[in-house]
């Protein structure tokens, strides 16, 4: 698949690429883009099967990283700073396996490890229920999701990917393709050890980035910094944007 990813480009300066997580789109890291575009060339992307980018039956980290490089080469972007959250953090790390020079990496609440716990079964149930019940309005779709997804913040996040397809509401992301590739999304093939400097930002209350991942981090990255953002979960940039931005700015 050689189609270019959908993207938004703002500002001038050193290039910064923002990569969202699962079921997200390029607006998810908007709180970072709005601030960083004041003095950087900020490129926010929709990953394959998300937002307004192309849909594909294939979805893994090597493919997603390759998509990003194809876009950056098309835009003549050199030595970017890459910032990724969650699944996007794994895409960011996988870029180091390609012959493409990266200035620095910021990985938000994600480890370079294989996860074995399915965390999204209730989310998938809610998303599929919307497809099956074909609600005609956003309010109805949100009500359908609430039968499966307890946390309102999660429903609100997912709801941003709803759109009116004419007769009923549909998802912009490729739900079938993502569900089919769910174990690929949890998976990880270790990268060759890289000298690219990386900052891991961890939400203190999140369990995605754990102490026992330290050995695997050090096997893959020679230059590592870790910053823990207190009183935040997996969505640290939404919960404490100012602290996250301070940590990113200090690092870059």
UniProtKB/TrEMBL annotation:
Q: Which GO terms describe its molecular function?
A: hydrolase activity
One Pfam family, short name: Abhydrolase_1
Which keywords describe this protein according to UniProt? Hydrolase
> For the AB hydrolase-1 domain, which residue ranges apply?
15-241
SUPFAM superfamilies, per database record:
alpha/beta-Hydrolases (SSF53474)
Keyword check for Manganese: no
The UniProt entry, under InterPro entries, shows:
AB_hydrolase_1, AB_hydrolase_fold, Epox_hydrolase-like
Q: What protein am I looking at?
A: Alpha/beta fold hydrolase
Source organism of the structure: Vibrio chaetopteri
């Amino acid at each position: 698949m050689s189609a270019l990813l959908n993207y938004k480009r703002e500002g001038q300066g050193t290039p910064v690429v923002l990569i969202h997580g699962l079921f997200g789109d390029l607006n998810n890291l908007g709180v970072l883009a709005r601030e960083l575009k004041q003095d950087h060339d900020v490129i926010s992307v929709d990953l394959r099967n998300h937002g307004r980018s192309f849909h594909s039956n294939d979805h893994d980290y090597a493919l997603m990283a390759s998509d990003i490089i194809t876009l950056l080469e098309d835009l003549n972007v050199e030595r970017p700073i890459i910032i990724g959250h969650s699944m996007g953090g794994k895409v960011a790390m996988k870029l180091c396996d390609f012959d493409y020079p990266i200035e620095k990496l910021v990985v938000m609440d994600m480890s370079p490890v294989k996860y074995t716990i399915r965390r999204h079964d209730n989310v998938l149930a809610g998303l599929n229920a919307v497809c099956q019940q074909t609600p005609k309005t956003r309010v109805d779709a949100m009500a359908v999701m609430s039968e499966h997804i307890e946390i309102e913040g999660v429903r609100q996040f997912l709801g941003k990917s709803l759109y009116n397809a004419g007769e009923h509401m549909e998802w912009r992301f490729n739900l079938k393709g993502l569900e089919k590739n769910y174990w690929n999304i949890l998976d990880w093939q270790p990268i060759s050890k890289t000298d690219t400097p990386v900052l891991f930002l961890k939400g203190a209350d999140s369990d995605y980035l754990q102490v026992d991942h330290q050995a695997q981090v050090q096997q893959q990255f020679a230059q590592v910094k870790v910053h823990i953002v207190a009183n935040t979960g997996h969505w640290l940039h939404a919960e404490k944007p100012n602290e996250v931005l301070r940590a990113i700015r200090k690092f870059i």
